[in-house]
User: What shape does this take?
Amino acid sequence: MASRQVLNVFEQYQKSRTTFVQTIAELASRPQNIETLQNAGVMNLLRPLLLDVVPTIQQTAALALGRLANYNDDLALAVVKGDILPQLVYSLAEQNRFYKKAAAFVLRAVSKHSPELAQSVVDCGALDALVICLEEFDPGVKESAAWALGYVARHNAELAQSVVDAGAVPLLVLCIQEPELSLKRIAASSLSDIAKHSPELAQTVVDAGAIAHLAQMILNSDAKLKRQVFSALSQIAKHSVDLAEMVVEAEIFPTVLTCLKDNDDYVKKNVATLIREIAKHTPELSQLIVNAGGVAAVVDYIGDCRGNVSLPGIMMLGYVGAHSENLAMSVIVSKGVNQLAISLVEEKEDHILSAICWSLGQIGRHSSEHARCVAIRKVCPKLLTCYLKPDASEDLQQKAKKALKNILQKCVHLPALEPLLHDAPPNILKHVVAQFSKVLPHDAKARRVFVSSGGLAKVQCMKAEPGCALAEYINTINNCYPDEIVKYYSPGYSETLLERLDTYQPGP
Assistant: This one.
């Protein structure tokens, strides 16, 4: 009887600990409870429970700590300062799979907030323990470890290098070959987080054979997996020509273009980003994309999307158009300028408008024919509107101004330039007048139209410092016409005629 009473005390104590830790874990899942839990000193109460003799209490304590650390960096820092990380790392090697998942969750929750907190995870020896977890039989343990490693690597190149040095990359590549979708997703995401920082880190991912396995999954039916696959391939391709060529050699074109019509916006955006990162490097890579039908596919994609989702496609057209006259003409023939002109009206955010202006400038700067193809879409007045927008960002103003100059300096299609004579500020106006001064001396029909449209009268109203470039352009234009016509359209000429009328004496 006495022994039963003693055992009852222990049972009650165990039940109380279990109830306590389960309740804390449940409360910690709701943001509104976090501050109260923190003020009640929950960290100090959970820490000894990580070493409890009952495995479920250990696991639930780790889960509660993970949820708390996940909430904000103050609580994550409290985990670090409470010397909880070394206990978790030690237990990763010793405990069962349930505890390992919970411990990896805490390490991930601490790492996500800042490079400094992620460095604390590295300093306590967590990476080696997490890499060992990647070799576990249980896919859930692998997934938790891969997730934590990705959260460490994402902050900067030094932390990513620490993950590489721990031997994680080959095991992550093995993880993307596992049948479980969630494990594939997390492993691909972690490879992306490693590859994004530098060519050397991306090369490490490539050397482990990642590209071939990633490329095999581009038509997978799971949207979340495809997001990570295209992100990883983009982060590899962006760094250098060699790495971009390795991605292309995995024969992703033209298959990848079908994913531009995916139902998932993130998949579409990541595909467009991948195409942009490949196209930007060389004319040859851009030509390969053109030959695969990539430009036409991206133009359709921009037409179907709005906002940030369309941004990589807009920039891709600019990169292709920047490389050469022929590639710029491929964009024009594929109705790229038409779509950019539409987007220039429909989009509202400055950073997207900046990208559209830049792309149009790259396409129109090559020759008079390129400039004409851009200008006839009534792009120049729209670019001017972006430049003169009162609340425009500095970047938008600069991009719009540069694009206007690029197009104006090549454009000899005068009807497209005429509206600018009336609205452009002096720093843009001189480029507009310069183009008229080049064309009018050699085109009689254009000279007549210039008069009838009010262009000549507008030029006479312009004030230019003697000897400046604008004054020379105005003189060149005036020299194309008889003095009587120039005088007729000059300001004040009607008053001069009236004065002559006042002094005129009719004959008898």
The longest helix spans residues 2-27. The chain has a mean pLDDT of 87. The chain has 34 helices and no strands. Residues 464 and 471 are 5 Å apart (CA to CA).
